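Action item from last meeting closed. Structure (313 res):
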C-alpha cells in the first residue's frame, strides 16, 4: 500500500487517502481507500462500486467541487474502498475492455473483499448484478448491500433478441428499459446528448459543471452492456435468490431516473426481500440517475447512513 495522502476538508486535514492495487490475476484493479483521521474507524468498511461508463471518481468528488460520498461515509467512521472496475479509470486493461464481462468485474471485486474483510457493498447502476453475485458467491464478506438505482439480476429481465435491428425498435421503450445494442469487439462511447438525456437530466444535476463531469466518463465494454440488458439471455442470473436477502439490502432510486421508474425498482426490492426507498417518499424530489453527483447528494448520503443505523451498522 502506498504512502497515504492527507486530504483537506474545512481547511483542515481531515482524511487520509491511500491507493493500492487489487483484483484478480486476469483483471487487476486500482483502489482508493478513504479514512477519517479524526475518528476511530470503528464501523464496517464500505466498498463503493461505480456503474457503467464511470470510474470510482464518481464517489470522490462532485462536479461542483464538493467532497463525494466516500468522504461522507468516512466521516461516519467507515473505511471506504473505492475501486475502478477493470479497464476503467486507473485500472489496467483498457486495451481489452471490449471483452470485459460482468463476471470478470465480480471476480475482481471478490478479490478486493478478501482484503477488506466483511464489508457493506454500495453498488450503482450496472454494478447491481455484481453486488448480487458477490452476495451469492462471497456471502461471508458481504454484510449488507445498498443498491443505488441498481441493475436487476437477469432472473427479472426479459430475454431480448440478439439482433441490433430488433433492439433499435425498443430503445425508446421504457417497459423494455430503453435497451441499447452494443456492437461486439469495439469499446462503446457516449456523446453529450446521451449524457444529458440519461445522466444529467435532472434539475438537481450541476449542469454548469457538465464539461467537468463529461471528462470523467470513460469507454465501456459492449459485452457488459449487452449483458446488462439481457440481450441474447446473457445477463447475470442469481441462483438461489434467497442468498442475497440473508443480509440487509436497500434499493434506493430517484424520481426522474428514466431507466429506474418506481415500479421497476420496487419489484426488484420485493424479489430480493429488500427495503425500498423512493426518494420522494422521504421528501427528496427531483433526482435523476447520478444521485451521488447531484446538488443534494449530502442529503441522500444521510438517508443511506440512517438506514445503516437502523440495521446496526
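Sequence:
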Amino acid at each position: 500500500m502506498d504512502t497515504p495522502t492527507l486530504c483537506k476538508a474545512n481547511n483542515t486535514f481531515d482524511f487520509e487517502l491511500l491507493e493500492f492495487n487489487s483484483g484478480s490475476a486476469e483483471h487487476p484493479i486500482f483502489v482508493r481507500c478513504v479514512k477519517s483521521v479524526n475518528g476511530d474507524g470503528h464501523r464496517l468498511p464500505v466498498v463503493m462500486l461505480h456503474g457503467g461508463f464511470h470510474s470510482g471518481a464518481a464517489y470522490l468528488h462532485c462536479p461542483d467541487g464538493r467532497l463525494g460520498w466516500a468522504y461522507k461515509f468516512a466521516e461516519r467512521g467507515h473505511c471506504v474502498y473505492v475501486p475502478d472496475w477493470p479497464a476503467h479509470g486507473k485500472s489496467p486493461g483498457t486495451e481489452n475492455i471490449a471483452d470485459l464481462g460482468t463476471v470478470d468485474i465480480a471476480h475482481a471485486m471478490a478479490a478486493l473483499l478478501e482484503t477488506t474483510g466483511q464489508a457493506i457493498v454500495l453498488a450503482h447502476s450496472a454494478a447491481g448484478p455484481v453486488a448480487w453475485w458477490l452476495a451469492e458467491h462471497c456471502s461471508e464478506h458481504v454484510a449488507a448491500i445498498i443498491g443505488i438505482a441498481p441493475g436487476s439480476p437477469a432472473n427479472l429481465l426479459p430475454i431480448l433478441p440478439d439482433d441490433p435491428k430488433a433492439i433499435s425498435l425498443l430503445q425508446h421503450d421504457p417497459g423494455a428499459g430503453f435497451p441499447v445494442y452494443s456492437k461486439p469487439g469495439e469499446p462503446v462511447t457516449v456523446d453529450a446528448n446521451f449524457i444529458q438525456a440519461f445522466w444529467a437530466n435532472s434539475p438537481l444535476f450541476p449542469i454548469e459543471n457538465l464539461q467537468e463531469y463529461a471528462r470523467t466518463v470513460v469507454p465501456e465494454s459492449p459485452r457488459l452492456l449487452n449483458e446488462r440488458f439481457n440481450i441474447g439471455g446473457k445477463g447475470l442470473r442469481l441462483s438461489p435468490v434467497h442468498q442475497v436477502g440473508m443480509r440487509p439490502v436497500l434499493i434506493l432510486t430517484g424520481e426522474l431516473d428514466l431507466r429506474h421508474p418506481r415500479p421497476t425498482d420496487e419489484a426488484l426490492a420485493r424479489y430480493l426481500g429488500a427495503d425500498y426507498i423512493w426518494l420522494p417518499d422521504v421528501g427528496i424530489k427531483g433526482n435523476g440517475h447520478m444521485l451521488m453527483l447531484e446538488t443534494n447528494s449530502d442529503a441522500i448520503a444521510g438517508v443511506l447512513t440512517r438506514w445503516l443505523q437502523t440495521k446496526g451498522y
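Note appended to the action item: The radius of gyration is 18 Å.
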